[in-house]
Amino acid sequence: xxxxxxxxxxxxxxxxxxxxxxxxxxxxxxxxxxxxxxxxxxxxxxxxxxxxxxxxxxxxxxxxxxxxxxxxxxxxxxxxxxxxxxxxxxxxxxxxxxxxxxxxxxxxxxxxxxxxxxxxxxxxxxxxxxxxxxxxxxxxxxxxxxxxxxxxxxxxxxxxxxxxxxxxxxxxxxxxxxxxxxxxxxxxxxxxxxxxxxxxxxxxxxxxxxxxxxxxxxxxxxxxxxxxxxxxxxxxxxxxxxxxxxxxxxxxxxxxxxxxxxxxxxxxxxxxxxxxxxxxxxxxxxxxxxxxxxxxxxxxxxxxxxxxxxxxxxxxxxxxxxxxxxxxxxxxxxxxxxxxxxxxxxxxxxxxxxxxxxxxxxx
Length: 363
Hints:
By secondary structure, the chain is an alpha/beta fold. It has 5 helices and 39 strands. Helix 2 (44-47) links the parallel strand 5 and strand 6 (57-60). The longest helix is centred in the last third of the chain and has 34 residues, at 329-362. The protein starts with a strand and ends with a helix. The model has no long low-confidence stretch (mean pLDDT 95).
């Protein structure tokens, strides 16, 4: 796989200068770049490392003096990470799964398979499942009965999609993703200690020990277009209605979405986010790593939650939050600053007490 500087610049919609016919075979960091590599030196900090490598061409920030950096060609990127997205898409060789259907795959005769679909070794495709054109299904994947997978989807190895799950086009699932598992929903014959605690915020009281009775998942999962699910992430089926994930939303690794939850469009759920059941999440919401969300609340459009935040109540649209329990990010920062001052404040209070005590003794 090789491209000229001009071809790369055209794919990025960027300006190229110098020897634009120079051929590039891969992207590299400046310090380790070779003569056929495109160095990623999108700020002065990274450009300083060019002298340690052998790059003849680089992606630079606008107005950078590419000739003073000893380069023969350059591409200018006004928005570096956007350029990274285009460059990595252009040069990604993919997983190189072979075309066609592997002979070890087990496909129900009622399943409908689109044109140019690739199905890898030891896959199982259930009855009445539908797979869109040009979709690639890696080894050891499972698609359940009546499940629908859109066009141009990519399932990495060991992905499972449960019965009746519906997924849109251009879906990506990383290794080990589980979509359509049963919801974690149980009830006791009589009022439980958990219910007492939730109602009173006190101790469990004298609630009797009881066994848990399973509430079955009659709903499924519905996922829009251009969604990505990270490795070992899980999306539970709904109890009655479907759990839903909107167009363009991306889940990082080890994310859990509970039953009945609805996630809007273009959200980012970062690593180890845990969302309980029956949560309504708006559009363009970002939840940082290890954010936890209690059940039966809503999170408005455009909310940003810092890593480790624990959301225990409704969050209005546009709010930036942080902490446990979640509060406004600025308020949390002010509280943290005040906490750091507590040892000094306690010393000052102790000194004042001593002064007052000593003054009283003298009187």
